[in-house]
């Protein structure tokens, strides 16, 4: 019964599933794990998915993250940075990163995925 020890995703939080963001409307704990009911509006039609496994949603979140801790990236104002930590924001449906400046180890800033570019892009220019 390891399913009760995982941190549940919040109700009304946005999660990625099959290329779109869905809102969590219900959650239940079963012997195989935590299951969610998610839904979204497509035009005037409501698209609902039921019984989505916690680990499937977690894999989708991880697939959206372009960087992992330890990766080097290029920020527009900070220059070259190192990703220290990443987290999913359920209120906005985005990956947020805590980055440290290349020359300043104590400087930690929080930036979104769109603000970072891979470090190899700068080397190619």
Task: Characterize the structure shown.
- The chain has 125 residues and is mainly β.
- It folds into two domains: 2-64; 72-124.
- It has two helices and nine strands.
- It has helices at residues 54-64, 119-124, and strands at 14-17, 20-30, 33-42, 45-53, 72-75, 79-89, 94-101, 108-112, 116-118.
- The strands form two sheets. Strands 8-7-6-5-9 form a five-stranded antiparallel sheet. It has a four-stranded antiparallel sheet with strand order 1-2-3-4, with helices on one face.
- A hairpin with a 2-residue loop joins β3 and β4.
- The longest helix has 11 residues, at 54-64.
- The termini are far apart.
Low-confidence stretches: none
**Based on CA inertia axes, which overall geometry fits?**
elongated
Number of strands: 9
Number of domains: 2
| Portion of residues within helices | 10-25%
Structural class: mainly beta
Largest sheet data: 5 strands, antiparallel
Overall pLDDT: 84
* Rg calc: 17 Å
Question: Roughly what fraction of the amino acids lie in strands?
Answer: over 45%
Major beta sheet, strand line-up: 8-7-6-5-9
Order of helices and strands: EEEEHEEEEEH
User: What gap, in angstroms, lies between the N and C termini?
Assistant: 53 Å
Number of helices: 2
